[in-house]
Predict the structure.
Amino acid sequence: MSYSVAVLDDGVAARVRATLEAPDYGHPAHAEVADDDAPCRVCLGRFEPGEERRLLFTYDPFRGDTFPLPGPIFIHADGCTPHPAAEPLPLTIAGHPVTLVAYGDGRRQLGEYRVDGRDELEERAGELFGDDTVDYMHVRSTSAGCFICRLDRPA
């Protein structure tokens, strides 16, 4: 595996669950029973429509940067176990079309690549991290464009 997985910080998720407010913006978080199988940004599991409760809120994957890029994300309303950084992306993510956005120094975007399936994702991530100018990648939903998680070089 040529990367480590960085999911939504569990402390940020806990604050959203406790306050029902989006971090950094104060917008209300919307609670609902899932009506689709979008992924949770903490555990990376997909919601069971009609059964699981989730929170929808505004999140900026570039928190603290000078140019924000907020968008909507979901997390389990009742909590979940974060996906381990040292494990590959689960098939709940890597088994679906996603877009890898590669970034270098100063948040310079170096490329955007649509991948479909674990093998293609693993191959493309390995190629991208083979380039020393790529610092990290965002994994985004190809269909909705929203942030799912970040891939970092392994420690």
